[in-house]
Amino acid sequence: MTNKLYFMEPSETLEQLKQYYFPPYITLAHMFHAPNGWRLLPRSLKQYQLQYVVEGIADYHINGHDYVTKRGDLMFHRPNEPHYITTRPNEPYVCLSVVFHFGDSGFPVQQVVQVSNESASHYMGNYQNHTIEQKLTELVHHYRMPEVIDHFQCQSLLTQILLQMSKRKKELAVSSSKKEVANKAKLILIRNYISNRLQDGFTHQDLEKLTGWSRNYMITQFRTAFGMSPVQYLVWIRLEKAKELALQSGQSFGEIANQVGYTNIHAFGKIFKRKTGMSLSQFCATLFKDTPDK
Q1: Percent of the chain residues past pLDDT 70, beyond the cut
Q2: Which of 25, 63, 93, 147 has the lowest CB atom count within 10 Å?
Q3: Mind listing the pLDDT tens digit for each residue in 50-67?
Q4: Any long-range contacts for 195-201 (C-beta under 8 Å, 24+ apart)?
Q5: CATH code of the domain in which 237 resides
Q6: Residues whose CB falls within 8 Å of the CB of residue 289, separated by 6 or more in sequence, listed in order
């Protein structure tokens, strides 16, 4: 029977504790004020790094991916990921850097920060005025102190930071999922509203009241979902309805135009031809053209 761990020498327990992980070893924690025109040349570290923007803006390049980082942004990258930073002329850049590792243990830090090893997402979020910002500042302060209690405090703070990052990323993922579902529902609401306004049409103000979205956001979301703007969608369903009426109803062109929201038959004719490449009469002719005898 395996001896109970608490009876063993500390060194003897390590083999039994492979499923557990130990506090991070911090090898750098400092605040850096970049001089004008400063840039970090391409490099790779053999450890993990957190980089937090205290002030200003800079372009951060990690493993082939580009990020514009600004006040409050927190970046994370893993060992051996090539990275470099370029600042912008006459723009300040002040950052907090924390470099750390977990010794020889294969610590699954990617599970803590909610990213995979293959993930391109090095951006952890914006933490301006968040407790993580405060903890990073405290960590840098204690790292400069000589007492053992300060070193212990640094490890504790970094552990808290990683845990809070994990919690927030989970919350954001859930929030994003809920928002996506709500957005889809609103987009369907817009589409149905437009479909029911075939004759009368709509204004963007109508859709803003319906969804609570701004005009530009609404148009962008609708175009992403359906491949066209709300106005283009209205034109499309009007023409589709016109084709259906021409095929089934036997109504005149003027009656069809009026039924799909066009009081001016000439304007309707121009739009129909521009969108379909033929006039409504030509369209009808192709539908009812006699099939030649074999």
Answers
A1: 92
A2: 147
A3: 999 999 999 999 999 999
A4: 195/237, 197/234, 198/234, 198/237, 198/238, 198/241, 198/259, 198/260, 198/261, 199/258, 199/259, 199/260, 199/261, 200/261, 201/234, 201/261
A5: 1.10.10.60
A6: none
Distance between CA atoms of residues 130 and 142, nearest Å = 19
| Tens-place pLDDT, residues 208-258 | 999 999 999 999 999 988 889 999 999 999 998 988 888 887 788 888 889
The one-character DSSP state at 17 is G
Q: How many domains does the chain have?
A: 2
User: Which range, of 15-29, 129-143, 179-193, averages the lowest pLDDT?
Assistant: 15-29
**284 burial via Cβ count (<10 Å: 0-12, 13-18, 19+):** middle
Least Cα distance to 143 among 53, 50, 30 occurs for 30
Question: What one-character DSSP code corresponds to residue 23?
Answer: P
Structural domain of residue 278, as residue ranges? 179-288
User: pLDDT, tens digit, for every residue of 96-141?
Assistant: 999 999 887 777 777 777 655 444 579 988 999 899 999 999 999 9
DSSP string covering 220-253: HHHHHHHSS-HHHHHHHHHHHHHHHHHHHT---H
For residue 10 the two structure tokens come to 């500390």
Beta-carbon contacts of 110 under 8 Å, excluding residues fewer than 6 positions away, are 78, 116, 117, 119
pTM score, whole prediction: 0.60
**Separation between Cα atoms, residue 187 and residue 294, nearest integer Å:** 49
Give CA–CA dist 31/212, Å, rounded: 42
Same domain, residue pair 98 and 31? yes
Beta strand ranges found along 22-112 (DSSP E): 25-33, 39-43, 48-62, 65-70, 73-77, 83-87, 93-101
**Pair 201, 151 in one domain:** no
